[in-house]
């Protein structure tokens, strides 16, 4: 257990030196939300362990044997395998239910130019009926001859998300200056058609989930809670706005008598102007006291996540629900929904290697060894670009590389050694998740050619 000094943030009326105990975090990977696991499923705690909760309601665990505390449930390891099987089963049921809703005839055809992908996609998708969006998705880039067996649609979604989720357009903003998860911009009404655009964003998200693709963007976890219709809590602030979270927790855990001079009124910055908002009627004249501070924190948290975005969120939710009915999402928690919509953002190299098919080569071939050596040397961002070059998407399915989709169902990532001039660049076939690589003479040449292909190649054609 480590002690550190924390100076009160801007929320506090004055600077205070407060001691916080930082509980050690033993879990650094994504894990199941404990609130979705029953006590019967987890079983009893190990001998010498105790479960407690903070004033803000966050659960933590005390190990009296070693005199340590942690947020990770010590029983989680026992249910991890069962939970993974449970999640895969739920995903299969979801895909089955969605397949029953897909019309047997016709296509959802979208043709756009790369230069005007946002506006042209908006106009076409908003003209369609929800049932037409559920038909087999066929995307074409104007001036390119590629046939869409999945790869073109993934490329389209990747490029479209890059535009429509960009804070530059004013629909979304980053949750804080240094945390780059997205949330709805409360000042989006600067665009008079903003509600129609949020309806469009919801449709695109639903379209991606319905057709087994992913959205290339990371929203705050409370956003997914809201999509599921679940209440927002104080601990949801921890990953979204850590400083505000610390300040509100301090208020709950300390006697604020004669310390704070706050009222039920808060300030926020709107395009450089500071505006005031009352958390309750006549809030500017109601002081925050030891007796009403819990109400203040609850109202502050609700305002922080919903201030000025009710209409925008309802428009987005409407578009999403037109393709993904709410009742189909009831078995999932908000962290699972994040993975369903966005896939896995971090690439697991061991999983990638284990689920790669080799054609006309072996794992001992120079081209294969050098390919993986290059991938290991790439940054995380460049690995995503390589994956996007070969499969059409930077995202990995929730079940990992074994579940990559191609034409007519699952297709593993494939390295194909071809008989071609070594001056040529590697060539990708996104509909088959395949990369064709000439027999380069050295690692340096393969690295150079692969990097050039990933960074500079663009467009689809028919062989």
Automatic annotation (TrEMBL):
Question: Mind telling me which CDD domains this protein's record contains?
Answer: HECTc, WW
Domain HECT: from-to ranges: 129-463
| Species the sequence originates in | Myripristis murdjan (pinecone soldierfish)
Q: In which pathway does it act?
A: Protein modification; protein ubiquitination
* Active-site residues, record numbering mapped to chain: 431 (glycyl thioester intermediate)
Q: Which domain of life is it from?
A: Eukaryota
A GO BP term here is: negative regulation of BMP signaling pathway
Cleaved signal peptide residues: 1-31
Q: Name one GO cellular component term.
A: cytoplasm
Record EC number: 2.3.2.26
What is the official name of this protein in its record?
A: HECT-type E3 ubiquitin transferase
Classification via InterPro entries: E3_ubiq-protein_ligase, HECT_dom, Hect_E3_ubiquitin_ligase, WW_dom, WW_dom_sf
The organism's taxonomy opens as: Eukaryota, Metazoa, Chordata, Craniata, Vertebrata
Q: Where is the WW domain?
A: 43-76
Q: Which GO terms describe its molecular function?
A: SMAD binding; ubiquitin protein ligase activity
Q: Which UniProt keywords apply?
A: Repeat, Signal, Transferase, Ubl conjugation pathway
